[in-house]
Amino acid sequence: MFAPPISCLCVTFGRPQWILEEAVFSFLNQDYPGPKELLLLNDFDQQTIVFDHPEVRVVNVPVRFGSLGEKRNAAVAMCRHDLIAVWDDDDIYLPHRLRYSISRYDPARRFFKPTQAFMLNDGVLRGPRSLLFHAGSLWHRSLFDEAGGYPHMGSGEDAHLEARFQQVIGSEIGCRLIQPCDIYYIYRWAGTQSYHLSSFGRDTPGRSGNDCVMEYVEQQIAAGAIRAGEIVLHPRWSADYSSMVRDYLATLGG
Prior knowledge:
- The chain is of the alpha/beta class.
- The protein has a single domain, classed as Spore Coat Polysaccharide Biosynthesis Protein SpsA, Chain A.
- The chain is built from 7 helices and 12 strands.
- The protein has helices spanning 17-28, 68-78, 97-104, 141-147, 157-169, 209-222, 241-252; strands spanning 6-12, 36-42, 47-50, 56-60, 83-86, 92-93, 111-112, 116-121, 124-130, 138-140, 185-188, 229-232.
- Strands 4-2-1-5-10-7 form a 6-stranded mixed sheet, with helices on both faces.
């Protein structure tokens, strides 16, 4: 099969260790036969993330980026490969994510993303549900450059970038035709003991999403919910999400 090299872009800030370990394990568990890398960019100066693996590059920077958009742009610049898969640090990707994305990727459009995912709330699987789900996208660096990259903003930077993608491509970009058994993205909301930037709302004058996240993370450190210092990752899943999805599909007749 066509299996070009892919960079998976993961930006992180003050997550509970187990959450980040699940995201990294989702990458290591991919059945994709081609070259791949996970670029993990951390700009929380109270934590140094450590993980040694030939396919994973951890970059710890001592100064926080001004916005999530700027941070994502920096991560794209660090990626070694031109095909880039967005990889959120608090969600789950099933093993066929990269393989399936490449099988549906159109080099002429330079973009692929299903608009459907499963939802996981407090350990209960639901869906499929249709939303933006930018974190399930795969695109080429040339499209990203032509679109001008992520805007320098917090929550909503993903929607703005995809709107720019759509302008460049000239037609709707999200793929609605995907079978439930092919869905590879599990979007988590409740139950992570962490934050969602979108829950803090859009940036306002004098107060950004960055500020809200920092306040939350500092409270979590003070409460002992997350640790500061060196964080050595031991990637694993806390549940067998592949089996969870198979069992759930059986209840849907899928």
